[in-house]
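re: ur question from yesterday

yeah so i grabbed the chain u mentioned. its 221 aa long if i counted rite. heres the sequnce exactly as i have it in my notes:
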Amino acid sequence: MGPAIWLRTHYAPGSNLKHEMLVADVDMDNAVDGDHRLLNDHHLYNYGPDWQRVFHVLPELLENYKPTWESYEQAQREAVGALKAYTEGGVPRARQTSPMLVHNLTGGGYGGGPGFQGQQLEDEIARALQSQVHSACVVTWLVLEDEEALRRGKVAVMFVDAGGNVVRSSRVEARVAEDMGGFWASSAWTEVDEWVDGEFGPEYQSGGSRGGFLLENMRNA
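ran it thru and got these structure tokens back, copy pasting raw so excuse formatting
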């Protein structure tokens, strides 16, 4: 997966100074691989809340990082299958289908691991497997500098699927968002709080179109 973009979508009078203050201490090279990936032009990106319009202008942002579309969908099916196996067979089944995950969660991982047991172990397995399902859908991430970001000083980190839907998102300080660039490059992004504690996007909630799609895959797995 390639580097992300930093997208500013709010250009109301007086917002330029707020923008400069917000990004003053951000190294764009670390955050999104350079200033050329900071999209800051009121003629082009004055989207307001409709920020996903950027994918119509720059569809290459959603290019699948897998070798083929089939492999992208296969990764989702495999993740859904592991989650389904756990929901049907509990921890014993997870030990068979996701042995390394259970090994790490029960204290066998590097540094001893957390050593979860009982209900806590069950909860952690479920959360980790759901994270794997969601992460299999992600093709890129971006930093959204919208009206709320300029008002509150917290940008939105958006993890996005191949259809431009938000899988998960978090509000963080701009300097924290900068760190995501390194985590993304090292493929460690699923371990950071912005992902783990991120809010599910509308389409990935139980009533959303993608949530329903993944549930249907669970039935057919």
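noticed a couple things. Strands lie at 5-8, 38-39, 138-145, 154-161, 166-173, 199-200. also DSSP finds eleven helices and six strands in the chain.
anyway ttyl
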